[in-house]
Amino acid sequence: MKFRLFETYRPMIIWSAFMMVVAGLALRVLHVLLTALLLKVFSFSFSWQLLRIAYPYAAGSAVWSDGKVITVYVLGTLFFLGLALLLIRQLLRLRVFNMKLRLFLTWFSFLSAHLFFVGLVAGIFINDELGMAFSWFFPSLSVRAAIVLVLFGISLLFRPLWVSLFLKISGSRTAIETYGKKRNYFRPVFLWPFVAGTLLSLPYALAVGSLFWVAGILALSLVALSLSVVSMPEKTPRLLKSAFEFSLSRKSGLMMAAVLAGILVLVLFF
Questions:
Q1: Is the pTM of this model over 0.85?
Q2: Is 238 helix (H, G, I), strand (E, B) or coil?
């Protein structure tokens, strides 16, 4: 059954995994740029990489203050939560009609909305990026763990929203008209691509030597795991009027591989 499902939705699975990785890299680049801008405002010394910021922590620790920590790491991260809310608003209203762009924006909003949470999960043990702010204000490991558990509980309340948004990727109402079909569709549009996208994303984090980013990528699995057991909505989500079916040609497959390899080379050598 699962193999037949994989064969049926294979092009969509590959496109979805690709869009997840691209959305994750785009979010990472934007987050790094915003953090660099805020560090520049406060005249911090740092070295900039495409996917990471490095600076002499010991040398700069004396100039940090509560306000600077909050602005750079907390507000800088929460900015993307606000961006995700704006995107979700448009996606729910079906304002995005190109399905591949819609898939990218759905993944981008999903990752952006959980950026703060996964940063705190990674920050429980790793004192870097948002983890610096987390340990700065909450030195106790047990307190940090308790805060993460509360936020995880809050994230569970929004699972139906994400299920609905990913089901809206369907180009056919008949593909998700029953509860069982919704469950079968959600696996190839979200769950399987998430696993593949996670594995594909790890080399980029390892390439820049960011253990915090590695921990953040793995922490997102907590959210994905919670979505794997959520109930499907009884009501079929409103879809685009025009039918759409994902296809995968040799040319598009080579394009995906070239994009991912090109970004990795750029990260390794620049």
A1: yes
A2: coil
N-terminal to C-terminal alpha carbon distance within the chain = 45
Residue 177 CA to residue 92 CA, distance in Å, equals 18
CB of 196 closer than 8 Å to CB of 13 = yes
The candidate with the shortest Cα–Cα distance to 85, out of 107, 110, 103, 66, is: 110
Q: How many CB atoms lie within 10 A of CB 3?
A: 7
User: Helices 115-123 and 130-137, interaxial angle, to 10°?
Assistant: 60
- Average pLDDT per consecutive 10 residues, the chain (270 residues; last block may be shorter): 80 96 96 92 84 65 80 93 96 90 97 96 91 92 95 94 95 89 94 96 92 92 94 89 86 95 88
Residue 54: CA count within 13 A, CB half-sphere: 8
Q: Is 54 helix (H, G, I), strand (E, B) or coil?
A: strand
Give the residue among 118, 114, 113 at the shortest CA–CA distance from 86: 113
Other CB atoms within 10 A of residue 143 CB: 12
